[in-house]
Write a structure and sequence with these properties.
GMP Synthetase, Chain A, domain 3; three-stranded mixed beta sheet; 4 helices; globular
Length: 111
């Protein structure tokens, strides 16, 4: 299943850049969890920007899910093509916030 998840993630990452929907800005696919029967796949995405941009990007991705599913079916030879659902992954945002906090607390070596 790890190989399937990684293959789906790679195909979706490549396909995201080719979508023409203006709602989908800078979106990164951070992970995929495919069910064991290949019927469903949860796609975790990170979106840079405000909460409104995040909501619009998720709406755009949901609207484009049939195009993305067709791409998966064309590029990967799976018994079934999973139904895609998109979820926001806050881990990247949390990491950026933690880095900023660490930088604020760390002593400045330039002095």
């Amino acid at each position: 299943m790890r190989r399937v998840n990684e293959s789906v993630r790679q195909v979706l990452s490549e396909a995201m850049g080719q979508l023409k929907d203006p709602r989908i800005g800078f979106v990164t696919v951070t992970g995929v969890e495919t069910s064991s029967d290949l019927r469903h796949a949860r796609v975790f995405v990170s979106v840079l920007g405000t909460e409104r941009k995040r909501e619009r990007a998720l709406e755009g991705l949901q609207a484009a899910h049939s195009v993305l599913q067709a791409r998966i079916a064309r590029e990967l030879r799976l018994k079934r093509t999973p139904q895609l659902t998109f979820e926001y992954d806050p881990s990247v945002e949390r990491g950026v916030r933690m880095t900023k906090l660490i930088d604020e607390l760390a002593p400045d070596d330039s002095e």
